[in-house]
Amino acid sequence: MAYGFATQDIQLDFWAEEELFNARSFPILIAVGGSLLALLYMAFPPAFEPPDLSGFNLELIGLVVLMLLYAGFLEQLGFIVATGLFLCTGFLVLGERRPARLGLVTVALTGGFYCLMATLEIHLPQGGWTGSWQGILEGLL
Amino acid sequence: MDRFVARHSGGITVIDGILLGLTTVLTLYNLTLVLAGCAVGTIIGMLPGLGPISAIALMIPITYSFEPSSGMILLAGVYYGAIFGGSTSSILINAPGVAGTVATSFDGYPMASQLRQPGRALATAAYSSFAGGTLAALLLLLTAPFLADISLSFQSADYFLMMVLGLSLVSAFASEGEHLKALIMTFLGLALSTVGTDLTAGVQRFTFGRMDLIDGISFLLLAMGTFALSEALMMVLHRRRSEAAPTIPTSGLRISKSDIKAIIPTISRSSVLGFFVGVLPGAGATIASFLSYGLEKSLARNPDPRFGEGNIKGLAAPEAANNAACTGSFVPLLTLGIPGSGTTAILLGALIAYGIQPGPRLMVDEPQIFWSVIVSMYIGNLFLLALNLPLIPYLARLLLIPRSILVPLIMFFSMMGVYLVSFNTFDLYLIVLVAVSALALRVLGFPMAPLLLGFILGGMLEDNLRRALTISDGSWGFLIERPITMVLLGIISLTLLSPLIRKLVSVATSR
Lengths: 141, 511
Prior knowledge:
The structure holds two protein chains of two kinds. Chain A is an all-alpha fold.
């Protein structure tokens, strides 16, 4: 229904209103078809089985939040730092406690992926702080 | 006959074309490129989140320094390798890197995880892919000049109905009582495909004023969000079930004689079906694999194990069909200049970047490219089998990765696969939203494959409907104007009504 109403927000040029098939036509067809199916679904609901939500816990919520944080900080922190933190935290959230495995996978994957992309001349985010650190290092050296 | 062949082959016969292709491909340099393409494609395709589109996109800059024919040979190898690699990740961790291998996971993953036969599943996939690719390459070699004419004879109305048929067949993939849910998901996919700019009118639709949505939702994002990423979250949600120790094949990498006997008819049917579906612009590996899966499912009588629970035919059919369709999809690309899928659209971009205009003139002006790509397809399939079968035990070790390591890895590759296409963090937020929504829908029993199919076909469906309606001056009479459209319409009606018919028949027989 919401999709159907939103089709009216599609801005058409004045001549397009008279066209046989304009930018609104296909979305309207989808909205009509979808609404009919939804009505059928409500009229003949399938047998309802309560979903198994036994695993719905802090791990799941933690991972979703972690992904959102990764999206938010990837370009600020740069690929290496953001991915390292993302992977390490992800492993910890899911119960990985062996430091060797945790560190090895994180470093190998982050470094390996970065090198692969660098070889292919695909530039991953360096992070907003890289420039200032480079400046400081160059100043010291 | 001679005139026909000559007219369509740019003055050379098919035999001459094959010889020209062999001369071009059978050099150390080009053979190395085929091998490298297959190896790189397999590795990239195996990584959840990175399918052929990403693999080819990553390799295109490297090929700019090559001769056009060598570049296309490498990219064709990457394409095949990535499809095979995608099948491997579909089977082992239920995370298809590409829509064309989604149907592979229906029975491949249960065979590997529930039946504890990962070696058998991977070997079946390898042999089926090889057989499908080989049969399709032969079909292509024999029929290439004629196929262009067949494709050209299809009109917009036929394309439109072919796509509606593909969408209506989703009911064949849905389990008993879930047909309506599958159709609702198809419409959701169609609705999502309308997000972005309508290229014909230049009008923005459902972008809510956001620049990030002007180009629409990326197919890769939706595929990764609904399959790989939501699968990773599903593994966390169904924690106990997923923590069972995986079985790694140390032996049993061969399939038994009875298995071979069972799948030979399936592979033959699926290869032919896959090839011809792949030839149709806009169809491609996804529809081919779903159609062949649906066909085998409908042909099977009392299958054991059932489809969706590790049936070998349910694995062989989509594998043979998707590889055959990959070969077939080169026909509209090379002869008409029309990409049959997202992957061939990228290949079209690569050809244009080389300064070559694909289309009916390609066979005349650049026969070397046309025939070398065709010949490299067969050689690529040989290399894939030689490369991947011995590596199966090592590939299968992916199953040994514990959940605590695997889930964040899938999350990383899914998110990075999407980011590498657009370099836009908005897509990262969007994929998380898609994955969480997909998780909720999967928990409620809504299937994801129809959504993806609806999304892929949405744009093409709209274009062909627009064209058909314009040609018929706004009349829907085009649906019943010609015999082919009437036949297609009849099949669509039967497909849509089949759940109702089955129910009526079962009620009648129970009385």
